[in-house]
């Protein structure tokens, strides 16, 4: 374990349930400061609707600067009905999210879909189809149709309107995301499924060719399969355990990762990491956020499940803060909480009494204390 390290975080709690989930992450940070040799300091700022209210923009330039200077950004959620009417795309809460991804060059979005044993019945699929499920979606996050030019809505001479976006990928964009997928697969099940629509899109043909080339050049020890994205959507419902790592573009990744998340039945449990390129010193920009949204319907009521945000912080410990052991410890604490039948409303079954957001954070801290005691005894 790395000793005497000081880390600097930026917490962007955002809208809806973001702030209450982030409050529980702060408890974990305080615990780590009290009980480990590393020191974590943090700054806080706005993103999304709250940033629009405070600064008139969903992501201020100063916030981007702070994000670039931090070792990791932890994000809550953005959006809500209050800002839904915005017709100017650049002022919508979601634009803040897209902007921070682009500005920090966070091209690699890792979205694990894991079924915790204690929550196997929460899935809408049969338990035997999802028990032990552990897949990783590697989604390209700064290219494709989300950012391709030209884009817009124009009025034609005949008075009709025309909306258009451009799906575009270059060799280097495809290779760098495929590289991440192969690297991840090496640490897991050594199997990558690459998804596109090469049957209808040239960008998909290029995607398939470049992934195949890279595989031949430097990752032939990994099993590689190609699959059309629509088939992948179907296979995810039919037999999700056939997958290990799925690598795909921005738009297909958006859709397939929601589907994979739902297989677990508990959106409130799923973290994600968005990583930039590694610089010469071995560090990279990174942002960690739960897969779930801002859930405005339950915001401010101490009902939200903070575990996805806490598990996102665990990913930050692993990928940005060089504290893999503490990431393991935190993830184990979450498992123990679930095994003890402690549940927020979204994951509670008939036999459970649901607890609140803040109590869930306390339960994780309690488990961390128990692990610490046990390790002192051992
Ligand atoms: C996601 C979300 C975003 C996306 C939205 C909120 C812009 O759906 O992170 O998956 O489409 O990427
Ligand atoms: Mg999405």
CATH class of the largest domain: Alpha Beta
Shape: globular
What is the percentage of strand-forming residues? 15-25%
- The low-pLDDT segments are none
Q: What report would you give on this structure?
A:
By secondary structure, the protein is α/β, with parallel strands linked by helices. It has 2 domains: 1-111 and 270-378, Isopropylmalate Dehydrogenase (3-Layer(aba) Sandwich); 134-263, 3-Layer(aba) Sandwich (Isopropylmalate Dehydrogenase), CATH 3.40.718.10. It is built from 12 helices and 12 strands. The chain has helices at residues 18-35, 49-55, 61-69, 93-103, 127-130, 171-186, 202-218, 229-238, 250-263, 307-319, 324-339, 357-377; strands spanning 6-14, 39-45, 72-77, 108-114, 134-140, 152-155, 161-164, 191-196, 223-228, 245-248, 271-275, 286-290. The protein has a 10-stranded mixed beta sheet, sandwiched between helices. It has a two-stranded antiparallel sheet with strand order 6-7. Helix 1 runs parallel beside helix 12 (357-377). The longest helix has 21 residues, at 357-377. The radius of gyration is 21 Å and the shape is globular. It starts with 5 loop residues before the first strand and ends with a helix. The model has no long low-confidence stretch (mean pLDDT 95). Residues 94, 97-98, 254 line the site of 3-isopropylmalic acid (IPM).
């Amino acid at each position: 374990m790395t000793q005497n390290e000081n880390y600097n975080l930026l917490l962007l709690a955002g809208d809806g349930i973001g702030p209450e989930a982030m409050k529980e992450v702060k408890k974990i940070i305080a615990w780590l400061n009290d009980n480990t040799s590393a020191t974590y300091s943090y700054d806080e700022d706005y993103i999304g609707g709250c940033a629009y209210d405070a600064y008139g923009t969903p992501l201020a330039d100063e916030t981007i600067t702070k994000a670039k200077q931090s070792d990791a950004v932890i994000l809550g959620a953005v959006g809500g009905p209050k800002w839904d009417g915005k017709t100017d795309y650049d002022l919508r809460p979601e634009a803040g999210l897209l902007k921070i991804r682009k500005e920090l060059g966070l091209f690699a979005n890792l979205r694990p879909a894991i079924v915790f044993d204690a929550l196997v019945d929460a899935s809408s699929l049969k338990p035997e189809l999802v028990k032990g499920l552990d897949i990783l979606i590697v989604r390209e996050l700064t290219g494709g149709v989300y950012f391709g030019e030209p884009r817009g809505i124009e009025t034609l001479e005949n008075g009709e309107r025309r909306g258009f976006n451009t799906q575009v990928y270059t060799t280097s964009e495809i290779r760098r995301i495929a590289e991440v997928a192969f690297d991840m697969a090496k640490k897991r099940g050594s199997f990558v499924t690459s998804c596109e629509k090469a049957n209808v899109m040239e960008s998909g043909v290029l995607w398939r060719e470049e992934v195949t080339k890279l595989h031949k050049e430097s990752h032939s020890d990994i099993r590689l399969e190609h699959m059309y994205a629509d088939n992948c959507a179907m296979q995810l419902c039919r037999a999700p355990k056939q997958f290990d790592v799925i690598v795909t573009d921005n738009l297909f990744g958006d859709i397939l990762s929601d589907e994979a998340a739902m297989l677990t039945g508990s959106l409130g449990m799923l973290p994600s990491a968005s990583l930039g390129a590694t610089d010469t010193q071995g560090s990279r920009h990174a942002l960690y956020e739960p897969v779930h949204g801002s859930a405005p319907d339950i915001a401010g009521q101490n009902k939200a499940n903070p575990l996805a945000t806490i598990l996102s912080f665990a990913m930050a410990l692993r990928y940005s803060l060089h504290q893999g052991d503490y990431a393991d410890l935190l993830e184990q604490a979450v498992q123990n909480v679930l095994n003890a039948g402690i549940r927020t409303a979204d994951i509670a079954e008939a036999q459970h009494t649901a607890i609140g957001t803040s109590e869930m954070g306390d339960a994780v801290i309690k488990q961390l204390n128990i692990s610490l005691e046990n390790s002192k005894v051992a």
